[in-house]
Design a protein that fits this description.
Radius of gyration: 24 Å
Structural class: mainly alpha
Strand order of the largest sheet: 3-5-4
Number of helices: 27
Shape: globular
Distance between the termini: 49 Å
Helix content: 55-70%
Number of strands: 5
Largest sheet: 3 strands, mixed
Length: about 625
């Protein structure tokens, strides 16, 4: 953030925090001090950096980049199954420090590494080496964020995430989930490390409070829907008795399976976990909940990031990073409108053939969603049947994919429902990657908060998007490329990853998965329409200044999606400016490259070879993908 903006914005924090409370006054003073510290750190990239010495080869820089990010993000290192050697220190008992000073240090180190990688003269200029250099330069800058924006925090998935406290991601949500799903507890030592991490939640949450104070001191205030959603999550997190909290029940399940421990040892460990949750975790979460409730008073009524300081520039940067595009917001808005018209026409044709002729396409899809034949029972049995059907869809398409996908990933995929405590803010479906060592599979998460939001005609498509040949297939193949620098193996380029997953839905149609299933095909088109609408509502809110209610009304009317899903989606776009653009923009780019290859190669075009070119180079910026596909075309000619 620019100095003039920071110094002026500190004053706004006085109103937010109140001047009669000594504690709050101290927080404002601290925010002023941290403002100076962070701007100095960002302004002077030569200070506080452990990477000043010249490397002997560029691979040293790649290793430094991996270690830099994961030394600051210990839980994500656990999620990926990294070792202490990979990270350069023993992180197994560590959490993360999100204080302004720590965040500034992380960003500064990554920005410096990006410059060093870019300046390095390669001795070997093979295609792989050139790609490594270009992508590693890009990804370190991606994680460093933009120098004009010191707000938010660095997320290992989406780079700069603008609001550290929100309803859908961030350390308060992601870290508990990683501890439950990814932290191994197979012996006494691992159990003690889990307990040690619980004992540090007060320090971690205190650092989040520092960062929140720092951001609000710059007048960077999250929208009301973001804050309200965060409060719902935070309040629910400490709603149960400590001994019944998921941190405890999850631990009990795992520790009871350790055969080497006696009943007495297990009881002692469980007692320690309950004590940490009671005396450390709960008070820390209650503290940040109170602070977030105070923030609600000053939260912005505007939905779009345009209302933030320098918000229009922030959004254009989000378009560049998360949409991987040089297009303007107006141009993207028009692409969205054009795609909405095209897809709606295709849907109308199917609806007419099936006897549905009254009302708009959206209204007819709402009517379909009310038909009992398309709904699962809202019960435990209904949820179990839904999960079984999803697994069936994965098995079916994985077999049918064989002719057009040469290379198969080594990692498995598993279907799970979102935990109840986070499902209100979570999307309809989501994917999380496997551990590098294979100890944990890739996970396709499905949201079962509202069974009407999961009509049978839409679930095939969601499964192809999240599992195979979508996110799991792409991410798992990427992680299989052991010769690539590690950050390339987990590269989270949004337009590439989401574009591929949306492209996968079309591939499933081309494979005949919707043959004799017109309603399933309607579900596929509805999902594609949903992504086209995202271009309209994201640019609508963040550039054209639409309200939250305008965006909800538009998406509901056009797509006919369940209201609970639409509200959650719109509030997600409010919290993540630009992320929703990657799906359609990425898909359109991959399709255009495929058509270009087919046109130039004619009979020589091999779809399975094309897929290898797109996938085996890992997730990359679209400019790199374009270059790689064109090199492949030339080699075939």
């Amino acid at each position: 953030m620019k100095l003039t903006l920071i110094s002026c914005a500190v004053i706004s924090a006085l109103t937010l925090m109140g001047c009669n409370d000594n504690k709050n006054s101290q927080a404002v003073d601290q925010a002023k001090t941290q403002t100076t510290a962070i701007t100095n750190a960002i302004a002077d990239n030569s200070k506080g950096n452990a990477n000043d010495s010249s490397p002997e080869n560029i691979n040293e820089l790649y290793i430094q980049a991996t270690q830099t990010i994961f030394k600051h993000r210990a839980l994500e290192a656990t999620m990926y199954g990294l070792s202490s050697k990979d990270v350069g220190l023993d992180f197994s008992e560590q959490l993360a420090d999100f204080s302004p000073k720590s965040e500034a240090k992380l960003r500064q180190q990554l920005a410096t590494l990006s410059k060093q990688i870019a300046a390095y003269t390669l001795s070997n200029t093979s295609s792989t080496d050139s790609d490594n250099q270009q992508v590693m330069k890009s990804i370190t800058q991606y994680f460093a964020g933009h120098e004009d924006f010191s707000i938010g925090y660095i997320d290992v998935w989406m780079g700069l995430s603008p609001f550290i406290v929100n309803q859908i991601n961030g350390p308060l949500i992601d870290i508990p989930r990683i501890m439950q799903n990814d932290q191994p507890i197979t012996n006494e030592q691992e159990a003690l490390k889990y307990i040690a991490r619980l004992g540090k939640f007060d320090q971690m949450i205190a650092s989040i409070e520092e960062k929140l104070s720092f951001d609000t001191a710059q007048n960077w205030l999250p929208p009301k829907s973001t804050v309200s959603g965060a409060i719902r999550y935070l309040s629910g997190f400490t709603n149960a008795e400590p001994k019944e909290h998921v941190f405890v029940t999850n631990f009990i399940d795992k520790v009871n399976k350790i055969s080497s421990l006696s009943a007495h040892q297990k009881k002692q460990l469980i007692t320690q976990v309950i004590e940490k949750v009671t005396t450390v975790v709960y008070p820390a979460y209650q503290s940040i909940t109170k602070m977030t409730e105070q923030l609600l008073v000053k939260a912005r009524s505007e939905a779009g990031v345009w209302a933030q300081p320098n918000g229009e520039a922030y959004y254009q940067e989000a378009i560049r990073q998360l949409g991987d595009s040089a297009l303007t917001a107006n141009e993207i808005h028009q692409i969205g409108l054009d795609e909405v018209a095209r897809i709606s026409k295709e849907m109308n044709t199917i609806l007419l053939k099936e006897g549905y002729s009254k009302g708009t396409v959206g209204a007819r899809m709402v009517a379909l969603n009310e038909e009992e034949r398309f709904l699962y029972e809202d019960s435990q049995a209904g949820r179990e049947q839904l999960l079984a059907d999803l697994n069936g869809y994965i098995s079916e398409i994985t077999q049918k994919m064989t002719p057009i996908f040469k290379t198969k990933p080594s990692y498995e995929v598993q279907v799970r429902s979102f935990p109840i405590e986070i499902q209100d803010g979570a999307p309809g479906g989501q994917y999380s990657p496997p551990a590098v060592d294979g100890s944990k599979p890739g996970i396709y998460w499905i949201n079962l908060r509202d069974m009407k939001a999961n009509p049978k005609f839409g679930l095939k498509t969601l499964t192809y998007h999240e599992a195979n040949p979508g996110h799991h297939w792409q991410v798992a193949l990427n992680m299989d490329q052991a010769s690539l620098p590690f950050l390339r193996r987990i590269a989270p380029y949004n337009a590439y990853a989401e574009g591929w997953a949306l492209y996968s839905e079309k591939v499933a149609s081309e494979l005949g998965l919707y043959e004799n299933d017109p309603f399933g095909d309607l579900g596929r088109l509805q999902a594609e329409l949903f992504r086209a609408v995202r271009l309209v509502v994201d640019t609508g809110m963040h550039h054209k200044r639409w309200t939250r209610e305008q965006a909800i009304a538009y998406m509901s009317e056009i797509t006919g999606t369940a209201e609970s899903d639409v509200v959650a989606e719109i509030e997600r776009y409010i919290t993540w400016p630009g992320q929703a653009l990657g799906y359609k923009l990425g898909m359109l780019k991959i399709l255009s490259l495929r058509e270009q290859a087919k046109t130039k190669l004619g009979d020589k075009f091999d779809l399975s070879a094309f897929h290898d070119v797109v996938l085996l180079g890992g997730a990359v910026p679209m400019s790199v993908l374009d270059r790689n596909v064109n090199k492949w075309i030339s080699s075939q000619l």
